[in-house]
Amino acid sequence: MAQGEVDTKKCGSALISGLATDLKPRYHFAALEKTYYERLPYRNHIVLQETAQHATRFIALASVGNPEKKKYLYAFSIVPMKLMDAAELVKQPPDVTENPYRKSGKEASMGKPIPAPEEESACQFFFDLNEKQGRKRSSTGRDSKSSPHPKQPRKPPQPPGPCWFCLASPEVEKHLVVNIGTHCYLALAKGGLSDDHVLILPIGHYQSVVELSAEVVEEVEKYKVTLRRFFKSRGKRCVLFERNYKSHHLQLQVIPVPLSRCTTDDIKDAFVTQAEQQQIELLEIPEHSDIKQIAQPGAAYFYVELDTGEKLFHRIKKNFPLQFGREVLASEAILNIPDKSDWRQCQVSKEEEEMLARRFRKDFEPFDFTLDD
Predict the structure, then answer these.
(1) Looking at the structure, do residues 84 and 186 belong to the same domain, yes or no?
(2) pLDDT confidence of 187, banded at 50, 70, 90?
(3) Would 56 be classed as within a structural domain?
(4) Same domain, 232 and 354
(5) How many domains does one find in the chain?
(6) Among the three residues 90, 122, 151, which one is the final residue of a domain in this structure?
(7) Same domain? 83 vs 189
(8) Does the residue 163 lie in any domain?
(9) Which comes out higher in pLDDT, residue 119 or 47?
(10) For range 314-341, the mean pLDDT
(11) Residue 36: what pLDDT?
(12) Which residues, including other chains, have CB under 8 Å from residue 184's CB and lie 6 or more apart?
C-alpha cells in the first residue's frame, strides 16, 4: 500500500501514540483509516542504553468486504508473554527498525529545535509525531518546558569517602590512566596479569555495572567493542569480568589472551571447572540478557563475559574467593602463569608502570573513539 493513500497530517492521534510508547504492545492493530498497511517491526528500547524489550508490529486493516478487496483479516498465533523464555521474547527480528515515536538519536545529538506542530511534517504512516505529548507536567499542572530553571546535566555520583578509582580523587594513581572518555576511563591494572591488562572504570562513583546510568552503560559498551577490536588486531581475544563483592568502585577487568594459547570454549570450560571445584554455582545466562535483569542494585555477584558475548554469572550469598577471576585466567589451562594469581605479587616500579602506560596509549591511539568526539 502506498503511504500517500492516507493524509498523515490529518490522521493519527497523540493519545494513541503516547499509549503505544508506554504500553509497548507486541501487536498494534488499527482500522479507522479503512485501508491495509503493515510496517516493519520496531524496537521498544534504545540499543546499549536500555534493557532489551520485545518488538512491536503495527498492522492496519481495511473494512470487511471493502470493494477494493484490501486485506481485512490477519491470521497469526501468539504465545502469552508469561509463557515465553525471556531471551526468546526480546529477540529482535532481522528487519527491525527504530521506534517511530522517538526523535532519532542523530537529531537529538545535533540539538535541533522541536518544530511547532503546524510546521511539522508527518513522516510515519498513522503516527502522530507531535513532540508535545512527550513533555512531562509538574505537580502544579504547568508544562515543564516553560520552567524558568532548565534542567542541568546530572553530576556523576560522589564517593562517601576516599576512593582509589574516582578519577577526581587524589588517591587515583593517574600515571596508570591510559584513556579518558566522557563517562568512563581506561587504566592499566596495577599488578596486571599482562602488560596490557586494563580496567574499564566509571569516572563517577558507581559500585557495580547494575548501578550505572544509561549514558555510562553506553560508553562502557563502546570501550568493550573497541578493546575487542584492538586486541584482535594484536592476535588476542579478551575476557572481561567483574566482582561486585568487597569492592566500592566498579572495576571491569579486561584481560587479553593470545589466540594461540586456547579457544573461547577452553576459557569457558576453565571457569566452569574451577567453579565446580570450589562449590561456586556459575550459571550461563542468555546472550541478550542484561546483568540488570538478574542482579538488583546492592546485590553481590561475579560475572564473566567472553569475546563471543557469552556470559557466566554467580550470585554471591556468603563468601567468595577474591582472586577467583585471576586464578582461572592465570591457570595452566589459560595463561599458564599461576604465580600471578595475586596482584600483590605482580607489582612493578612506578617508572616501569609509566613506561607500560605510555606504550599502551601509543598502541591504542588508532582505535581511540574519544578522538572522534
Answers:
(1) no
(2) very high
(3) yes
(4) yes
(5) 2
(6) 90
(7) no
(8) no
(9) 47
(10) 93
(11) 83
(12) 200, 201, 202, 203, 216, 219, 220, 223
Cell numbers linked to 301: 555477584
- One domain, residues 180 and 75: no
DSSP H or E run through 200: strand 198-202
CA distance 244 to 222: 21
pLDDT tens, residue by residue, 102-151: 754 444 444 444 343 333 333 333 333 344 434 443 433 444 444 445 55
- 190 and 333 belong to one structural domain: yes
The CATH number of the domain where 190 resides is what? 3.30.428.10
Only one residue has cell 596479569, namely: 193
Domain that holds residue 228: 174-367
User: Do 82 and 180 sit in the same domain of this protein?
Assistant: no
Residues 235 and 332 grouped into a single domain: yes
Among residues 75, 90, 105, the one where a domain terminates is: 90
Q: How many CB atoms lie within 10 A of CB 10?
A: 7
Using alpha carbons, list the distances in angstroms from residue 259 to 107, 344, 357: 41, 27, 23
Query: CB of 91 within 8 A of CB of 83?
Result: no
Residue-wise pLDDT for 228-277, tens only, equals 999 999 999 999 999 999 988 999 999 999 999 999 999 999 999 999 99
Residue 12: is its pLDDT beyond 90?
no
Cβ-based burial of 63 (10 A; exposed 0-12, middle 13-18, buried ≥19): middle
Please answer whether residues 128 and 122 qualify as being in contact, where contact means their C-beta atoms are separated by less than 8 angstroms: yes
pTM higher than the cut 0.70 = no
Neighbours of 295 (CB within 10 A): 20
pLDDT level of residue 283 (50, 70, 90 thresholds)? very high
Q: Measure the CA dihedral 347/351/352/358, to 10°.
A: 130
